[in-house]
């Protein structure tokens, strides 16, 4: 191999080496770390961790009942899922404090403003979006997260939450983890709404998965749930052999990626079934709200 080719080839751990040179307490470095972690090294894992985060939300009956009443998952579930991921992408793309991210967050706040959602539920949902991906990567990622990455992801999450006007947020990952554990201990309980929203979400996942994953998608999804979550969602217990097989398969995937896969050279671009040609922000949101969301807010002058 020519020397020039060897120099030009990016190594599997080059992103991690760059991450370790950055300061997660610097806002620009924080956003760069999140991009390298979420869009280069672990894009698929981030999606899976986010999917688990959705399911954890449904274990809280008050959250599940609201989602069940809106019927968004029943009537337009794929768009609902795509739109949620779009807000995450808009925040990461140019940095959480960028004009692009702020416009997306303002739109998200307008959507949430239609519902009476208490601050403690917002806190919990935000915690799941951080703890879910971190837990997944720690268990099934091709490498462990560096402490610098965990700090950056935590600060990114907190800043996003601040832009959503969520108060009383933790300052550390351990704080978010404790918030999640305590909240689930107090609020996890089975309710028929939990099961309905979960089944609707699994159907969405199945529809958007490759054809060869669809036959066993539901059972594998349930096999990935821990027992408190499975019971809160009212999902049937799966055979131990299946749970073990899913675990072994995901760990094997991590080994293959670590030792055989080439590093990603460009940021991952997620495909959205709802928006095959791409999206604009005025398309994001529940269909019944789009006209209102796309109407500029009136400015009130003080006489």
| Strand percentage | under 5%
Q: What class do helices, strands and sheet pairing give?
A: mainly alpha
Q: What is the radius of gyration computed over CA atoms, rounded to a whole number of angstroms?
A: 20 Å
Biggest sheet descriptor: none
Average pLDDT level: 90
Name the helicity range.
55-70%
Number of helices: 15
Tally of DSSP β-strands: 0
Terminal Cα separation, in Å?
75 Å
Shape: globular
Order of helices and strands: HHHHHHHHHHHHHHH
**Low-pLDDT segments:** 1-8, 299-303
Total number of distinct structural domains: 1
Search tags:
disordered N terminus, 303 residues, mainly alpha, 65% helix, disordered C terminus
Structure description:
This protein is mainly alpha-helical and 303 residues long. 65% of the residues lie in helices and 0% in strands. Helix 5 (61-70) packs across helix 11 (192-207), helix 8 (119-140) packs antiparallel against helix 9 and helix 8 (119-140) packs across helix 10 (173-187). The longest helix has 22 residues, at 72-93. Mean pLDDT is 90; it is low at 1-8 and 299-303.
List the helices and strands and how they pair.
Elements: H1 3-8, H2 14-19, H3 27-41, H4 43-58, H5 61-70, H6 72-93, H7 99-112, H8 119-140, H9 147-163, H10 173-187, H11 192-207, H12 217-223, H13 227-233, H14 240-259, H15 290-293
How would you concisely characterize the structure shown here?
This protein is mainly α.
């Amino acid at each position: 191999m020519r020397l020039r080719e060897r120099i030009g080839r990016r190594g599997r751990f080059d992103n991690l080496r760059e991450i370790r040179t950055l300061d997660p307490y610097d806002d620009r470095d924080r956003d760069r770390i999140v991009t390298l972690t979420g869009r280069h090294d672990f894009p698929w894992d981030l999606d899976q961790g986010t999917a688990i985060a959705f399911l954890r939300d449904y274990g809280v009956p008050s959250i599940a009942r609201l989602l069940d009443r809106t019927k968004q998952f029943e009537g337009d579930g794929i768009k609902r899922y795509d739109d949620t991921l779009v807000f995450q992408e808009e925040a990461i793309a140019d940095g959480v404090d960028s004009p692009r991210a702020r416009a997306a967050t303002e739109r998200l706040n307008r959507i949430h403003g239609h519902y009476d959602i208490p601050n403690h539920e917002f806190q919990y949902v935000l915690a799941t979006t951080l703890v879910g991906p971190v837990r997944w990567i720690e268990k099934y990622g091709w490498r462990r997260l560096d402490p610098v990455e965990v700090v950056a992801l935590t600060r990114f999450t907190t800043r996003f939450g601040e832009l959503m006007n969520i108060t009383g947020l933790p300052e550390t990952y351990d704080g978010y983890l404790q918030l999640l554990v305590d909240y689930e201990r107090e609020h996890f309980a089975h309710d028929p709404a939990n099961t309905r929203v979960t089944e609707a979400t699994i159907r969405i996942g199945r529809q958007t998965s490759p054809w060869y994953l669809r036959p066993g998608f539901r059972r594998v999804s349930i096999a990935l749930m821990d027992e408190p979550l499975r019971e809160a969602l009212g999902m049937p217990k799966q055979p131990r052999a299946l749970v073990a097989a899913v675990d072994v398969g995901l760990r094997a995937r991590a080994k293959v990626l670590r030792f055989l896969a080439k590093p990603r050279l460009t940021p991952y671009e997620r495909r959205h079934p709802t928006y095959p040609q791409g999206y604009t922000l005025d398309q994001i949101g529940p269909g019944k709200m789009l006209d209102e969301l796309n109407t500029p807010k009136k400015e009130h002058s003080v006489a």
